[in-house]
């Protein structure tokens, strides 16, 4: 079957590009001269994980949980994989490293300066010299041989155990520099045993024996006339692939030298400079060219059932039917089934390499409980009989483990990766926070804050001496978070108030080893997410409000006013990311949380999370779908498809803000990249909401889209747009002679205000039957609207009464009567005046007359006021302790005591009340009715409180009489 070659696709900018597989083959890793490293789920992955690690990357090597990257800083930097966190420096050179190679015991790096450094697993680093040109390519065999092609046209082989140069081959092309070269003369050892070495030379591939260094074969392709650049054995050593400077690819079955048919020539003759076989030996390999493009080759051969093939191989070996090479030993048998795994070597059999023993196959090469990447390849049980021993033997079978899926890591919405030298820490509707740092100059590390409306706030420039990595921005505060690596003082939150006076900056250090991973800010709160899954809520002035715990691994956050969103993993990922969204409201010291599932496209990841200008949660995923959450309906609605704004498969959208009132999205289209550039700063564009309806390009579909958005999305003129669009749809249905659809539209909208308009329009276009059928709908809609309004008022009234009663109970519980004895104050007594005349004198003296007595007596008809004895104390002046006084009966009885006394009666009368809440509502109605009846019916023995009517003899008071009441008598 001929192999298939995919089209090359964009991976990096034009220049040197490298490509390899993970050890387990699940992902492809590519590097480029742009300094980016991309991790692909496949060549057709539209959104590979991208990180910028340097200005340029020249080599990459994956090793278990680490990945080694050679950058333009002349070092080999180790990173944790897949987090890409720095994990130390392995090598340092005076020029950039061009090639990396390893086996289980040695790690080697070759440089542009013509030096090779080797680091043993359990030894000291040493250097291999004697090279007169840059190192172009290297490989390390299982027998600890290192082969390196150099720019001086020589291919050298060293034995690493003794650091000896054992062989040199000449005749390769000479080059002065690694950069710009396309012929690398890549050596490739046979991976299973390392007994063969292949390297490209002109238009052929030369294969030599590593024992005698004699030439075994020269492989050529009759249809290829260009020079070969790289070659590589398949993981089991039975196939050999090579690529040329013209973009051709050739694949041979090594033992038979038979060419594999397939698409040899490329559509564009660009030199292929990268080649790697899939580690699982499934007949696939990945390639890349000097244009930064990546492609793959599939179906080179068919994968066989490893278990049956292993049994067949063991039987053939036992019967002596297997044809062996001169240096073939039993390692070759096992290595054909476990690619890249080194078998346990038995030193006692090293003297006789041709000895084949089934006992050795059983005892030394029992299939272990392998890693996850080998469990699917090692299947079955092999049985063989030794011609000297007829005992049955078997090879242990391997267990099968379920495939695991990567869970999305936390990211900061509106930001670009931390690895970028110039990056956005925050880009939203308020402004932009940019971080600038230089790898070469450690002093260059600053933060710049720029506001869209410069009339409100001035820009801010800060020295980033704390190495802040995350930030949030709102109208009132700039919040930044740093890690604990700076001076080991703990992770720290630093905030700058924008609308305060005095000391505008405040900070807070996280306790212990807790690290800040995310920060978001609104005009009222600042929320910090930590690696302990704590959500720390602060006010914008620095008061700690709450400390909450997230239910799962955090993914993203956003804030708006008193609300904030938290996206987290509710369960481990499968083909999809299983995410939930916490919608938290914190008003004063009252919290409320709503937990809802978060909708994503199949196989997509969350790319942006935020609020609209109306406070609705909004998400954007890697599939290009923007969704908005409708709280009343408790549903997600897709409102934008990114495919309309992408010119190519590598384009992406960077969301800035969502204006629900205008039904527009402000975004940046990133051409050929995932994130926007910082310099020059891109200009955002406005995109209008558009739901993915069927036939949205037609008039009917476009009107239906506008109608649905006016119903469910909070726009400024939603009611007006709803009426206009409904009328247009009704008219369109009438013109299309689909009267039933027109009537259905009226019934669906259910508005009594629109029915007369619809009837008038139907009569005008002589659709009298339609107009008559709409007439009965008007009273029905009016009745429904009244009932809905009444129900809403009743619900609001009941809720308000319940809240008031609960608040009253709370107040009573807090302010319980204090039983502490009170000290009653002494009554106030008016003392005698010592300067007053005696009683006899006072009695004999005539009382002074009232100067207004003539007015009072004549005009009003009242006698002069009596003289008050100063020794008489009015009762109103005596203070009383009202503690034992009866309460005002006007307040009436309370609801909760009444409800407890009548609860059993209410249950008997209303057995359909399933919950206490429904029973409380029923009781509230009866309680109000009883109080109303009691207030309107006078009790026995109580006089009616009716107003007394004026008698005919009563005369109204004049103005002078009313004024005279305010007169006083002068003593």
Short structural summary:
The chain is α+β, with helices and mostly antiparallel strands and 971 residues long. The chain is built from 15 helices and 54 strands.
Describe what this molecule looks like in 3D:
- Residues 824-898, 931-959 are annotated as: Disordered.
- By secondary structure, the protein is α+β, with helices and mostly antiparallel strands.
- Helix 6 packs antiparallel against helix 7 (739-749), helix 6 packs parallel to helix 8 (755-764) and helix 8 runs antiparallel to helix 9 (768-774).
- Strands 1, 2, 27, 28 and 29 form a 5-stranded antiparallel beta sheet that branches. It has a 4-stranded antiparallel beta sheet with strand order 3-4-5-6, with no helix packed on it.
- Residues 305-399, 839-890 and 940-946 have low confidence and may be disordered.
- It contains 15 helices and 54 strands.
- Helices cover 19% and strands 31% of the residues.
Give the tags.
single chain, 971 residues, alpha+beta, five-stranded antiparallel β-sheet, four-stranded antiparallel β-sheet, 54 strands, elongated, WD repeat-containing protein 55 homolog, WD repeat, WDHD1/CFT4_hel
Task: Assign the structural class, choosing from mainly alpha, mainly beta, alpha/beta, alpha+beta, or little secondary structure.
Answer: alpha+beta
Flag low-confidence runs: 305-399, 839-890, 940-946
The largest sheet, given as strand count, sense and whether it forms a barrel, is: 5 strands, antiparallel
Tell me what portion of residues adopts beta-strand conformation: 25-35%
The Rg value, from CA coordinates, equals 44 Å
Helix content: 10-25%
- Number of DSSP E strands: 54
Spatial separation of the terminal alpha carbons: 131 Å
Give the integer mean of the pLDDT values.
Answer: 77
Number of helices: 15
| Overall morphology | elongated
């Amino acid at each position: 079957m001929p192999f298939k070659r995919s089209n090359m696709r964009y991976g990096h900018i034009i220049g040197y590009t490298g490509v390899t597989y993970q050890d387990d083959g699940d992902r492809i890793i590519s590097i480029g001269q742009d300094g980016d490293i991309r991790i692909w789920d496949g060549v057709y992955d539209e959104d590979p994980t991208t990180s910028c690690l340097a200005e340029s990357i020249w080599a990459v090597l994956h090793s278990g949980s680490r990945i080694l990257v050679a950058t333009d800083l002349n070092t080999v930097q180790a990173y944790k994989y897949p987090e890409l966190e720095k994990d130390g420096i392995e090598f340092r050179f005076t020029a950039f490293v061009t090639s990396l190679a390893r086996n289980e015991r040695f790690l080697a790096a070759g440089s542009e300066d013509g030096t090779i450094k080797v680091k043993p697993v359990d030894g000291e680093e040493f250097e291999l010299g004697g090279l007169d040109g840059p190192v172009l390519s290297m490989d390390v065999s299982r027998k600890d041989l290192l082969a390196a092609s150099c720019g001086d046209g020589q291919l050298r082989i060293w034995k690493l155990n003794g650091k000896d140069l054992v062989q040199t081959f000449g005749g390769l092309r000479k080059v002065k520099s690694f950069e710009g070269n396309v012929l690398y003369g890549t050596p490739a050892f046979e991976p299973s045993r390392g007994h063969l070495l292949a390297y490209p030379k002109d238009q052929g591939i030369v294969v030599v024996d590593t024992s005698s260094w004699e030439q075994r074969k020269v492989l050529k392709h009759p249809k290829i006339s260009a020079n070969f650049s790289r070659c590589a054995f398949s993981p089991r050593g039975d196939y050999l692939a090579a690529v040329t400077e013209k973009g051709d690819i050739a694949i041979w079955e090594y033992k038979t030298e038979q060419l594999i048919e397939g698409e040899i020539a490329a559509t564009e003759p660009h030199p292929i400079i990268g080649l790697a076989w899939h580690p699982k030996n499934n007949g696939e390999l990945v390639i890349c060219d000097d244009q930064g493009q990546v492609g793959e080759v599939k179906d080179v051969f068919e994968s066989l059932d490893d278990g049956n093939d292993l049994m067949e191989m063991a039987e053939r070996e036992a019967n002596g039917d297997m044809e062996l090479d001169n240096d073939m030993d039993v390692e070759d048998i096992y290595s054909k089934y476990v690619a890249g795994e080194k078998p346990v070597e038995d030193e006692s059999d090293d003297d006789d390499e041709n000895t084949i023993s089934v006992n050795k196959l059983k005892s030394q090469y029992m299939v272990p409980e392998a890693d996850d990447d080998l469990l699917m390849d090692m299947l079955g049980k092999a049985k063989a009989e030794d011609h000297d021993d007829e005992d049955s033997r078997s090879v242990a079978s391997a267990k099968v483990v379920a495939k695991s899926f990567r869970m999305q890591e936390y990211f900061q919405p509106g930001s670009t990766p931390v690895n970028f030298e110039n990056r956005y820490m925050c880009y939203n509707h308020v402004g932009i926070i940019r971080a600038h740092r230089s790898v070469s100059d450690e002093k260059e590390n600053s933060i710049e804050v720029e506001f869209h409306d410069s009339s409100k706030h001035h820009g801010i420039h800060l020295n980033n001496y704390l190495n802040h990595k995350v930030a949030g921005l709102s109208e009132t505060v700039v919040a930044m978070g740093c890690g604990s690596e700076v001076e080991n003082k703990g992770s720290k939150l630093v905030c700058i108030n924008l609308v305060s006076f005095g000391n505008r900056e405040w900070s807070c250090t996280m306790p212990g080893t807790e690290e800040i991973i995310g920060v978001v800010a609104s005009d009222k709160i600042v929320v910090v997410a930590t690696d302990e899954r704590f959500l720390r809520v602060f006010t914008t002035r620095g008061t700690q409000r709450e400390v909450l715990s997230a239910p799962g691994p955090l993914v993203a956050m956003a804030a708006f006013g008193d609300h904030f969103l938290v996206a987290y993993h509710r369960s481990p990922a499968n083909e999809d990311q299983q995410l939930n969204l916490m919608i938290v409201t914190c008003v004063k010291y009252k919290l409320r949380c709503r937990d809802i599932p978060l909708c994503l496209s199949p196989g997509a990841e969350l790319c942006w999370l935020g609020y609209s200008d109306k406070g609705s949660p909004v998400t954007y995923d890697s599939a290009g779908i923007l969704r908005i959450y409708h709280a009343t309906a408790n549903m997600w609605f897709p409102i934008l498809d990114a495919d309309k704004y992408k010119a190519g498969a590598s384009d992406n959208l960077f969301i800035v803000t969502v204006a629900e009132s205008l039904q527009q999205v402000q975004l940046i289209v990133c051409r050929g990249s995932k994130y926007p550039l910082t310099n020059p700063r891109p200009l955002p564009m406005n995109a209008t909401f558009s739901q993915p309806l069927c036939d949205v390009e037609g008039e009917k579909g476009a009107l239906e889209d506008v109608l649905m958005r006016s119903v469910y999305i909070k726009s400024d003129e939603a009611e007006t747009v709803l009426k206009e669009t409904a009328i247009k749809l009704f008219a369109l249905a009438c013109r299309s002679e689909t009267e039933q659809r027109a009537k259905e539209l009226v019934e669906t909208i259910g508005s009594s205000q629109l029915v007369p308009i619809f009837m008038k329009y139907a009569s005008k276009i002589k659709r009298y039957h339609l107009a008559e059928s709409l007439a009965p709908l008007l009273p029905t809609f009016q009745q429904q609207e009244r009932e809905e309004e009444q129900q809403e008022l009743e619900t609001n009234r009941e809720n308000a009464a319940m809240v008031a009663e609960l608040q009253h109970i709370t107040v009573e519980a807090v302010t319980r009567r204090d039983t502490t004895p009170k000290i009653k104050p002494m009554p106030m007594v008016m003392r005698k005046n010592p300067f007053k005349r005696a009683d006899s004198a006072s009695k004999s003296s005539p009382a002074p007359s009232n100067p207004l007595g003539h007015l009072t007596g004549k005009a009003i008809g009242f006698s002069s006021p009596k003289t008050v004895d100063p020794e008489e104390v009015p009762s109103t002046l005596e203070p009383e302790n009202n503690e034992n006084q009866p309460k005002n009966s006007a307040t009436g009885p309370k609801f909760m005591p009444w409800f407890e006394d009548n609860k059993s009666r209410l249950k008997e009368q209303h057995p359909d009340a399933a919950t206490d809440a429904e029973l409380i509502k029923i009781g509230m109605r009866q309680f109000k009715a009883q109080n109303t009846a009691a207030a309107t019916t006078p009790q026995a023995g109580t006089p009616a409180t009716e107003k007394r009517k004026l008698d005919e003899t009563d005369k109204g008071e004049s103005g002078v009489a009313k004024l005279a009441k305010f007169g006083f008598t002068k003593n």
